[in-house]
Every structure is written in C-alpha cells, then in structure tokens.
Amino acid sequence: MIGSSRSIWREGKVVHVIDQTRLPHHTQVKQLTTLAEVAQAIQDMVVRGAPLIGVTAAYGVALALQAAADDASLATAVQTLIATRPTAVNLRWAVEHVAAQLATVAPAARAEHALLLADELAQADVHTNEAIGEHGAALLQQRWQALGYPARLNVLTHCNAGRLGCVDWGTALAAIYKAHAAGVPVHVWMDETRPRNQGASLTTWELAGRGVPATLIVDNAGGLLMQQGQVDVCIVGADRISARGDVCNKIGTYLKALAAQAHAIPFYVAAPLSTLDWGIVDGVHEIEIEQRSPREVTHISGRNEAGEVVTVQLAPDGTAALNPAFDVTPAVLVTAIVTERGVVPASHAGLASLREPALA
Ligand SMILES: CSC[C@@H](O)[C@@H](O)C(=O)COP(=O)(O)O
C-alpha cells in the first residue's frame, strides 16, 4: 500500500521508498532505518534515478547520525554513500551539501538537524521538478504548434526520468505531464531501456498511472520510427551534465541523439541544476561510467504465466558480457537543456548563464 504519491517519504526516523525492483508487478514500500540499508538500496536500484538517489543519500546521512553523530561517523556516512553509484552527480552533490551544513552544527544537535535537511532537499526536489516541467511543457507546446497542431505529438523518451527517478513529477516526464494536462495530445514512445528495463517496467507503469497515452518499443526501434516521421521530439533526463553541456544519461541515449540529429528532430535534456558538474568540461572523457554486473545483461526478470516474478538466463553459460550503465551524448547533439531556471543551449555560455547569482 502506497502512503504517498512520492517515491520517498519519512515517518519519524524511518524512511519509506517505493521498491523499484518490484515494479511493475508488485507495488511495495521498503523501509530504511540505517546507513547500510540506504547504501544497499541505492546500489541494488531499489531507488534509482539521479535526483532520487541524491535525496535518498541525504536521508542516509541522517540515519547514520541517529546512531553516532561525531565527525568520524559523518565522514564515514559521506564516503559510504558516495561510493554506492559513481555516475549520477546529484548523489555526491546532495551528500556534500548536507555534510557541509552539518559540519557547522554541534554533534549533539546533528541527528535531528540532518533529518530536517534531508526533508528540505526532498521538498526542494518537488518544486524543482515542477518548474522543469513547466519549461519543458512550453517546448513541447511550441513543437506541436510548429508542426501545425497534429492530432498527436509523438515524444520519444529513454529510461525513466519520471517521478520514480525523483521525489515527484520527474524531469523529462514532468514536461510530458504538464503538456498533457495543458491539452497537448502527447503520445510517448517508451524505450524499453535494456538491460534494467526501466522503460518497460517503470515508465510504462508511471505513465499508465497518470493516463498519458504511451507505447513501449524495443531500444532499437527508435531509428526506424524517426525515419518514418513518427517521432516529433525527444526528451530525456540526465545523470551528469558537464560545464560545456555534454550529457551523461542511461546507456542508449547517445544512439537516440545521433539518430535524432540525422532526422532533424529536436533532442531535449531535462535536468535540475544539481545534475550539473561544473568541475568537468569534457564529459565524454571525464565522466566515470558505472560498470554494473554482467548478470544484468545475461539474465532478465519478469512475470511468468503463473504470476510469479522469475529471473531467467538469456545467454549461454559462460557468455562474457559488458554492462556500462550510462553513455555520454556530446553537447552538439543536444538541442537545449531544460532546467528549473529555464531552457538554455547545451553550451558553456548557456549553462554558465544559469549559475549566477544564486549558485555562486
Ligand atoms: C529523473 S532521472 C534521470 C536519469 O537519472 C535517468 O534518465 C537515468 O539514467 C537513471 O538511471 P538509473 O540507472 O535507473 O538510476
């Protein structure tokens, strides 16, 4: 039973999350009460999506401090959480933000303060994503208008950049929700997103729950659909964006951006400013790409006809498999980046214009 429309919420000293490894067949809430449980949940992708793992990690710091709030415990919590997943910079940003604030608080007051800081981040994420949604919806509306108001606006998205990847709303999907609510006849092509299938198991569930027309496609279908004129616009999320606008997102995003460029289809990236890594310029060469278990490639999970969720093996025994979880789309392939502060070109100048003065 879900007690909230949010992906994460707190009751006292217990953090509740929707267990995304169980979706779409089971909607279950998992309770997290310790640093170790939070770290495991992030690593196992019980929670996933850049903004959500950031907020979850902030709660992880707070839970760690309930046991011991000295400087050493704080440092251990920070290190443990940052090591869980290396690519999405929101995680590091959130943990370092909370740790910096707590460093100025007396250890005796830290445990309670940390919970409130994490609550603040969770709340801020909701407002941020709603703002991203407004800006992104305006782009979708403009595209619909530019195409002469077709009976449906076909939007392609990859992975799950929805409310499940955030506290609420989502990033790319926030734009779709807002456009849908405003009367734009959006229809979403949902890439299945091998190997973890976030599109097939999460975006399908999420969009169906909000009544947005959508169709699941295999990852390799996007090129054909673009060639046939069946994709009007692409919008995806991001896990890290370099200072010059290179976009790191779920593996497969780059190929879609290449195909979109070949067919002159706008390719938008929606992300909060916490996804920007100002310390990295060349995203293609500098962003660490998480390598996950080969088992995620050689095996697949789903529900069988008896209604049981099972994992089966796809490849022969002993098959070597490589599983990079993300790729980087160079800025030149990105039409624009949609943030909570507005839409900017994927360029150094464009992104820098968002930085001042509040983030200085
Ligand atoms: C709003 S979530 C944006 C991104 O984090 C999303 O597109 C993505 O790549 C998530 O990857 P995941 O491996 O599922 O955490």
UniProtKB/TrEMBL annotation:
This entry's Enzyme Commission designation comes to 5.3.1.23
Describe which pathway this protein belongs to, using the record's wording: Amino-acid biosynthesis; L-methionine biosynthesis via salvage pathway; L-methionine from S-methyl-5-thio-alpha-D-ribose 1-phosphate: step 1/6
* One GO process term, biological-process aspect: L-methionine salvage from methylthioadenosine
Return one GO MF term.
S-methyl-5-thioribose-1-phosphate isomerase activity
Q: Which residues form the active site?
A: 239
Keyword list (alphabetical) reads: Amino-acid biosynthesis, Isomerase, Methionine biosynthesis
InterPro entries assigned: IF-2B-related, IF-M1Pi, IF_2B-like_C, Initiation_fac_2B_a/b/d, M1Pi_N, NagB/RpiA_transferase-like
Task: Identify the domain of life.
Answer: Bacteria
Give binding positions for substrate: 48-50, 85, 198, 249-250
Catalysed reaction per UniProt?
5-deoxy-alpha-D-ribose 1-phosphate = 5-deoxy-D-ribulose 1-phosphate; 5-(methylsulfanyl)-alpha-D-ribose 1-phosphate = 5-(methylsulfanyl)-D-ribulose 1-phosphate
> Can the keyword Transmembrane be found in this entry's annotation?
no
Tell me, in a sentence or two, what this protein's role is: Catalyzes the interconversion of methylthioribose-1-phosphate (MTR-1-P) into methylthioribulose-1-phosphate (MTRu-1-P). Also catalyzes the interconversion of 5-deoxyribose 1-phosphate and 5-deoxyribulose 1-phosphate. Part of a bifunctional DHAP-shunt salvage pathway for SAM by-products.
**What is the name listed in the Swiss-Prot or TrEMBL entry for this protein?**
Methylthioribose-1-phosphate isomerase
Species this chain originates from: Silvimonas terrae
Q: Which gene encodes it?
A: mtnA
